[in-house]
Amino acid sequence: MLWSRFLKAFLFPMPRGLPFPDIDPVLIQLGPVALHWYGLAYIVGLLGGWAYMLRLVGGAQWPHKHFGRAACDDSLLWMTLAVIIGGRLGYVVFYNLEFFLAHPREIVAIWHGGMSFHGGLLGVIATAMILARAYKVPLLALGDLLAAVAPIGLFFGRLANFINAELWGRVTDMPWGVRFPNAGPLPRHPSQIYEALLEGLVLFLVVNYALHYRQAFMRRGMLSGIFLVGYAAARMGVAQWRAPDAHIGLVWNNTLGFWLSAPMLLLGAWLIWRAARTPHAKSA
Questions:
Q1: Full residue range of the structural domain in which residue 91 is found
Q2: Which end of the chain is more exposed for a tag (fewer CB within 10 A), N or C?
Q3: At a CB cut-off of 8 Å and minimum separation 6, what does 21 contact?
Q4: pLDDT tens for residues 202-232?
Q5: In a domain, 29, yes or no
Q6: Is 25 a domain residue?
Q7: Residue 30 DSSP one-character state
């Protein structure tokens, strides 16, 4: 047995993996002020989503013409706050509540890291409810508009996770495994790239195919449902290769993100079913 293990290790060693690219997480340093790649990802994601939203509300398919460019401009600030505040509070509650109860000052220390997509999503939903009432636009219609642009931010956010060498995957013998700093000597799945491609690029293409080629704006809730199902499926699938949070570990044999995404899958499926049975919405 010892001899066979030696031969296996000698003849078929685990690939060394790809070295992590030498990328400084700080993009620009001007004295005490630093712009990190992670901050830039938030800026590009939010501004990119806003720019695309302007294009959509100016198009022929958007049926609610009173929610136009001015409303999009006003919504940018509130959605930015919703993502940041919701994302931080989601991380506090879902991922490390005991620590933050003992160190409440750390709750506002976003620069120390710690954001949750699911918390950000809840923040966006709450803010969308307020904006929908203020601008007299149906909530599901506004949700569909946000669903069309949200994958842009997800794509850049996951790329920033990779640059920060955080949220890496489990150990792998695949040739594209990456040796991340502070993750040990063994190669790991670049799960951040998997999620950037699935939650970002692929989900953007799917949602916008339904929008532009299936007139999904006319079935309120359809795009929202596709986004929720698509994100949940991608997150739950990649969870099989993503390493769990070190201070949490596996929850019922899977990551916490997997279980937080399960309700999204159910809600999204219900919204798609509901939209498919509902007659086309009229312009407002």
A1: 34-277
A2: N
A3: none
A4: 999 999 999 999 888 889 999 999 999 999 9
A5: no
A6: no
A7: E
